[in-house]
Design a protein that fits this description.
heterodimer, A: mainly alpha, B: mainly alpha, about 60% helix
């Protein structure tokens, strides 16, 4: 009787572990990103709001003038980081303001400013450093097949073909792309954050040209297909990180259940 | 009708006496003796699902244009092999279920072999007269690894192509004959056009034929030699206490077969494995991260990642840094594994026949060595997944590698000492059942009286003899 319940418990655990999880990305973040996707309109009120926010939240590290040097040598001057695209990217992905002020890696987090405030900061800093343009991206314009090929050549070596992400050495991690918005993709390609090369590894990428626009749209189309993934067949993806978690499941759930079954079947002896 | 056909067969083949002996064969009851059966039944599942997959798989690197239902790949140039695996996954009815069940069965198959090997090792079941079956078993493990690796490579997806590339480099690193052997095996420079069709022949013909034949030998030897058993009440070196093949053991095995099939089919249906459509076709200029082999080859990948960058040129031959971790280390490790029964005998000088098993705690040195060996493989396996554990634990991969390099030196020694110490403690403690008085047996004498025979607890070398304590009841 006790063994029966162990076995049933095992099957229940199996069922729980293997239940496919749907949509990890929060819909509110996606909506916020969609709102921020339009080019910021340049109103004096917005600019003033941006200045106020900057002086309150950013100036103590980045310096009083976004276009000037920063206060700390380890903090990048905003003149060098990639203008409005970088500001939009770090603020919307929650990388800034910095959570705990320690460690070299800035991790993704929750967006801390409201969409309106993000837009104000983007406008103010973008104008101040003279690069106020956000990249334009639309997966619907992209070619999915070409996107897959470009992604394979430029992105997969770090982020993985299925966008699961991996450790890169040092403190660097290629983040998972399975829940990022197309705008994040386009901005990251433009600014090249962290270890990522500007242009995302595409050698002839030049921001603002028609060819690069097509490349970005194509890649965004493929990354979007990873996020929405209508082809996630075959059951629970167990992390989507390949053979290591698969081996773990084979040992713990597969062989585990069979050993429990063996103990159940065999007498005491 | 049945009776008549039995009679017909018996008159010609003498099956009745054979069957009588076979059906009366006694199997001991301990659950750990079923671990080998899990491997056997996983093999059954592998064969059935594998045959199904063969119906639809095309072992060819001929270029075709993918036009199946998977949108991101439509119009891509892929090999016929990859194309057929995509067809199996998305178009053949039950194809993905069969493919996934096959793959899960492979992972569980090798896992069951390993844990069965551990049982045999730690209980000393490999001792005389079972050394030959130990050899057959180790050979079966090799064949299973070969089956696994060739199967992993067949879909010709990006991940398996990366694996083949590493295998190519490892074969090249064999001293003196490396280049020659690589060209012979691959049929040219990587990625050679012949490799997929050759892997296919290995995977569905040569290796399975050997595997099945050797499983037959493995079981035949098991039937010829009586089964081992743990020491306990009424069990001696000369008997086997347990259940007969018919009916008890047959139904137990049958239910384990059904359990194995059920668990593997459940995994195949519920848990995604090797989604080749996500990896895409193999292009030599692409890589994907994280990239790992299936778990049972993981130690080799880890060894490569841990290995020192030592290049050596001897008499004009270059010994590459790949040689030490990927050729020399597995060569020595599997050499020790293969020769273990003889290595152990050299030190214990124990040439006696053994049918009673050791309890692992009673042989602390062997148990310690086994645990240390497992630790070596475990550390290498961890290193093989350093990029994944790095993200999981938020630790840089270099730190993991540095820790595991030291771990490789320190951990086996610590493991041995701790295991030895635990075994010694357990042997001394009251938990040791062999020291519990096994009770008395009543035995009838020729003249009709009774005598009690006390059963001595098993001594550490496994010898047990009933000692008469004198006649009673006269």
């Amino acid at each position: 009787m006790r063994r029966t319940s162990i076995l049933l418990g095992g099957i229940a655990v199996l069922a729980l572990l293997l239940t496919p999880t749907t949509g990890t990305a929060s819909s509110s973040r996606r909506a916020a990103a969609a709102a921020a996707q339009q080019q910021p309109s340049d109103s004096p009120a917005l600019n003033a709001r941006g200045r106020e926010l900057y002086e309150n939240a950013c100036a103590s590290c980045h310096g009083p003038d976004p276009a000037g040097p920063s206060y700390y040598p380890t903090v990048p001057s905003l003149n060098d980081v990639g203008g409005a695209a970088a500001v939009n990217w770090v603020l919307r992905t929650g990388r800034m303001p910095w959570k705990d002020n320690k460690g070299p890696a800035i991790e993704r987090g929750k967006q801390r400013f409201s969409d309106e405030d993000v837009r104000a900061l983007v406008v103010y800093i973008g104008k101040a450093v003279g690069d106020a343009q956000l990249p334009d991206v639309d997966p619907a314009r992209g070619n999915l097949q070409r996107g897959r090929e470009l992604y394979g050549q430029a992105c997969a070596a770090c982020h993985g073909m299925n966008g699961a992400g991996a450790a890169l050495g040092g403190e660097n991690i290629a983040v998972s792309l399975q829940d990022v918005h197309p705008q994040d993709v386009a901005e990251a390609i433009k600014i090249g954050p962290g270890q990522m090369p500007v242009g995302g590894g595409m050698t002839d990428y030049e921001f603002g040209t028609a060819k690069s626009q097509q490349d970005v749209d194509d890649i965004a189309a493929y990354v979007e297909s990873l996020r929405t993934d209508p082809y996630n067949e075959g059951g629970a993806p167990i992390g989507g990180k390949g053979p290591v978690p698969e081996g773990f499941v084979a040992w713990v759930i597969g062989l585990g259940l069979l050993v429990v079954a063996s103990r159940w079947i065999a007498g005491r002896g | 009708m049945t009776e008549r056909s039995f009679k017909y067969l018996d008159e010609r083949l003498g099956t009745a006496s054979l069957a009588r002996t076979a059906l009366r064969k006694v199997f001991p009851d301990h659950w750990s003796f079923l671990l080998g059966e899990i491997a056997l039944f996983s093999l059954v599942v592998l064969i059935f699902t594998g045959v199904f997959l063969t119906f639809f798989y095309t072992p060819s690197v001929q270029e075709v244009i993918y036009d199946g239902p998977y949108e991101p790949l439509r119009g891509a140039h892929v090999t016929a092999a990859y194309d057929s695996v995509m067809r199996i996954s998305f178009e053949v009815r039950a194809g993905l279920l069969m493919r996934q069940t096959h793959h899960w069965a492979a992972l569980v198959f090798v896992a069951a072999i390993v844990i069965h090997l551990c049982r045999v090792f730690f209980t000393g079941a490999f001792r005389r007269p079972r050394e030959v079956n130990w050899l057959v078993g180790v050979l079966l493990l090799f064949l299973a690894l070969g089956e696994g690796f060739t199967g992993y490579s067949l879909p010709d997806d990006l991940l398996s192509g990366i694996g083949l590339r590493i295998f190519y480099a490892v074969t090249l690193a064999i001293p003196v004959i490396g280049t020659w052997a690589t060209y012979l095996l691959f049929g040219g420079e990587f990625p050679a056009p012949d490799i997929i069709s050759r892997l296919f022949v290995f995977h569905v013909m040569l290796l399975p034929a050997l595997l099945i034949a050797l499983v037959g030998v493995h079981i035949a030897i098991l039937v010829l030699q009586k089964h081992t058993q743990f020491p306990g009440h009424g069990r001696t070196e000369r008997n086997v206490v347990g259940k007969r093949l018919w009916p008890e053991q047959t139904f137990k095995s049958l239910s384990l077969l059904l359990f194995t099939t059920a668990v593997l089919a459940l995994l195949g249906g519920l848990a995604q494995i090797n989604p080749v459509w996500q990896y895409g076709p193999f292009e030599p200029f692409n890589v994907t991260s994280p990239a790992q082999p299936d778990w049972y080859i993981g130690f080799l990948d880890g060894a490569l990642r841990l290995g020192p960058p030592w290049d050596l040129t001897l008499f004009g031959f270059t010994i590459s840094e790949v040689f030490w971790p990927a050729v020399l280390f597995p060569g020595i490790a599997f050499g020790i594994l293969t020769l273990w029964p003889w290595i152990e005998r050299r030190f214990t000088k124990d040439r006696a026949e053994h049918h009673l098993l050791d309890r692992p705690r009673d042989t602390p040195v062997r148990t310690g060595i086994g645990a240390a060996g497992l630790m070596v493989f475990f550390i290498m396996f961890l290193e093989g997944g350093n990029d994944i554990f790095g993200v999981l634990l938020n630790v840089p991969v270099e730190t993991i590698t540095r820790i595991l390099q030291w771990g490789l030196v320190v951990a086996p020694i610590v493991t041995f000492l701790v295991t030895y110490w635990i075994c010694k403690g357990l042997s001394r403690s009251r938990l040791r059942p062999a020291q519990i008085n096994a009770g008395v047996r009543l035995s009838r004498t020729a003249d009709g009286g009774y005598e009690t025979v006390s059963l001595e607890p098993a001594s550490s070398d496994g010898e047990r003899a009933p000692a008469a304590t004198g006649p009673h009841g006269e």
